Amino acid sequence: MKQNQVVDFEEFVKSLSIFHPDTPLEEKAAFAFKIYDIGHTGAIEPSELKRFLVATMAENPDIDFDEAALEAIVNTTLAEVDLAGDGRINPEEWLALVRRNPDVISFMNLPVLQELTSRFPA
User: Fold this and answer.
1) Cβ distance 44 to 37 under 8 Å?
2) What does pTM read for this prediction?
3) What are the residue boundaries of the EF-hand domain, all occurrences included (predicted)?
């Protein structure tokens, strides 16, 4: 996005392309990482991971974890993913997680974009 905080049509289309089913997994993972790295620290912090879980629960009323369960999920996730042992998830660790579990970013596929590019090739 340009520094004027306004998204023009070209920027919008480029941003939307990340959701095309044919976009490489690595590009999708990098984009998702930027979303989850809320503080722009270059890593997904435990608090950001917890914030994501809370947001997910808000959208799914059938899921309701108490504070202890949330902490356990964050700690278990970090134990599995944080290979550097620094208590955060760096981009390489995130990519390794996404490669093992592509469903983590399954929300980043909009099949309608495949149909549009088939109907209206460049």
Assistant:
1) yes
2) 0.78
3) 24-59, 69-104
